[in-house]
Design goal:
The chain is an alpha/beta fold. The protein is 35% helix and 25% strand. It has a single domain, classed as UDP-N-acetylmuramoyl-L-alanine:D-glutamate ligase (3-Layer(aba) Sandwich). A hairpin with a 2-residue loop joins strand 14 and strand 15. Helix 9 packs across helix 10.
Length: 308
């Protein structure tokens, strides 16, 4: 069983989509990553921070899935990070209505000693200085460091972000962010520019249009499964990252062929995440659901053709 360190937010979200709205519910990048990774035989730990207002039942929910939460700091008297957003009708664009950093503003991550030798580190969407601090705390270089980031950090902390990007193996961003980071409209050219920044692999997520994996001259495309119901895309990217990194940590195989499988597993789990608000669908998944949908992914792309 491989070890996986997960860094990111554990938070409250309030979400409004064309299909309804929620009050404060469980959210945060590390939460979705952890729940997705827990579907594999992996020994994972979340490094994050919450306030005293964070319910014990949510902490139990994570630990009951064999996620180590000893490095999930609870700040006495503090308030948990909160994000509120409203999605437009196409569910691809959204407006941020509120962002309250709260305890996250002064967060100093501490990697548990038992996980400083983890094979895989998943750096969820956070300030680059926090991500760098975690890399620096590892006893030896992990087999794989995966970084997820977003345009907010490109706009506000580009210099620090570029320093982190130099030290990672896999960058996962969406198509809009890839274009912003590189100044290239072509995603192939964007990936080539990112290779020069440091990463060996680039995953470019295209939402309902799937995901691309780049490595040197090799390219792999994973489709997104056509779904009848999409209620809330909030945690989809983080769920993808959790499935991707969780599968790689569990399989202990960092080859391009295995990364292709990791992309499929990430896409598969993300397809469940969007079917309900927040973490609800991820908390009610079973192995039969997951395997059945993996077969759908395979059927979606498998064909035979006679070449002349």
């Amino acid at each position: 069983m491989g070890k996986l360190v997960i860094v990111g937010t554990v938070a409250f979200d309030a979400i409004e989509t064309p299909f309804g709205k929620t009050d404060k519910i469980l959210g945060g990048a590390a939460t979705f990553i952890g729940l997705a990774a827990s579907q594999f035989q992996v020994d994972s730990a979340i490094v994050s921070v919450v306030g005293e207002d964070f319910p014990q039942e949510y902490l139990d929910l994570l630990s009951n899935r064999n996620i180590d939460i000893s490095a999930l700091e609870v700040v006495k008297g503090g308030k948990t990070f909160f994000w509120k957003g409203k999605y437009h009708n196409d569910l691809n664009s959204r407006d941020t209505l509120a962002t309250e950093l709260n305890v996250l503003a002064d967060f100093n991550p501490v990697v548990p000693s038992a996980y400083k030798n983890a094979e895989v580190v998943m750096l969820g969407n956070l300030h680059p200085n926090i991500q760098m601090s975690v890399i620096d705390q590892m006893e030896k270089r992990p087999k794989l460091i995966v970084l997820d980031t977003m345009n907010f950090w490109m706009d506000n902390t580009l210099e620090e972000l570029m320093e982190v990007i130099k030290r990672i193996d896999v960058l996962t961003i969406n198509d809009e962010e890839a274009r912003q980071l590189t100044g290239e409209y072509s995603l192939v050219k964007a990936a080539q520019k990112i290779f020069k920044m440091g990463p060996k692999y680039v995953v470019i997520k295209k939402g309902e249009h799937g995901a691309l994996l780049f490595h040197e001259e090799q390219v792999f495309f994973a489709p997104a499964l056509p779904l009848e119901d999409v209620f809330d895309p909030t945690g989809a990217g983080d769920t993808f990252a959790g499935g991707f990194s969780g599968y790689l940590a569990a399989s202990d195989n960092i080859s391009f062929d295995n990364l292709k499988k990791a992309v499929i597993h990430g896409s598969n789990l993300a397809s469940f995440s969007v079917e309900k608000f927040g973490t609800e669908r991820m908390l009610n998944l079973d192995r039969d659901d997951i395997n059945s949908r993996l077969h759908q992914f395979k059927a979606l792309t498998q064909f035979e053709i006679e070449l002349q």
